[in-house]
Amino acid sequence: MKLEDIRREYTQQGLDRDQLDANPFRQFDLWLQQAIDANMTADPTAMSLATVDADGQPSQRVVLLKHADEQGFVFYTNLESRKARDIAGNDRVCLHFPWTPLERQVVIYGRAEKLSVAEATRYFISRPRNSQIAAWTSHQSRSIGSRKLLEQAFEQMKHKFRDGDIPLPSFWGGYRVVPFKMEFWQGRGSRLHDRFMYSRDNDQWSLDRLQP
Q1: What residue ranges define each of the domains in the chain, with the CATH number in brackets?
Q2: With contact defined as beta carbons under 8 Å apart, do 124 and 133 qualify?
Q3: Pyridoxine 5'-phosphate oxidase dimerisation C-terminal domain: which residues (predicted)?
Q4: Residues annotated in the binding site for FMN, as ranges?
């Protein structure tokens, strides 16, 4: 089959303005919970994070949402990674939740701000021990000669931290994406999809329907 022949209709449901909460965070919480309850994927909290480097080159990667409230959307990472370097130069980022089995997408436009050490520490100590060790092991985004070298480094870190608690690495932490726009997309038949954009003006949110 040719790629251009692969298509399907979006027929599950539509989306009207009166179905949307005036508060985009409450609307997001509702859709996220529905994605979790639908058991549609092993990672309903997976989101694509887009950043732009100093040369204007965009890049994307999947990270996991670890907290969401009216302050923003939180994820954790190596603070020396490519994404962290991009954010240091340009804090404007974009998040994308592709809940395709529900024929839904949420796109969040915002600014990424670094979490405090206290916030990062609280989350770090809640992680499984091997995940804590992996944070110490990986120099994220840097070249390595083989997987064997990575596994050896992991075993060395396991030995180093064989006794007691594992401290937070100085190069590991988190970011909160504070949104100024949030788009909710619902698939609709004949490609006449429903799109609604929340836009923030100071502490007030307005809501507009967008053409598909």
Answers
A1: 9-127+170-209 (2.30.110.10)
A2: no
A3: 172-212
A4: 61-66, 76-77, 82-83, 105, 140-141, 185, 195
pLDDT digits (tens, 9 = 90+) for 114-161: 999 999 999 999 999 999 999 999 998 889 899 999 999 999 999 999
> Which amino acids are annotated as binding site for substrate, given as ranges?
7-10, 66, 123, 127, 131, 191-193
* Binding site as annotated, residues: 7-10, 61-66, 76-77, 82-83, 105, 123, 127, 131, 140-141, 185, 191-193, 195
pTM of the model: 0.93
| Structure token pair of residue 200 | 């923030």
Buried b (16+ CB within 10 A) or exposed e, 57-70: eeeeeebebebbee
Does the annotation count 142 as an active-site position? no
Nearest of 128, 129, 144, 132 to residue 172 by alpha carbon: 132
Q: How many CB atoms lie within 10 A of CB 201?
A: 8
Task: For the chain, list the strands marked E by DSSP.
Answer: 46-52, 58-64, 67-69, 72-78, 92-99, 104-114, 172-186, 194-201, 204-210
Catalytic residue among 129, 142, 191, 209, which?
A: 191
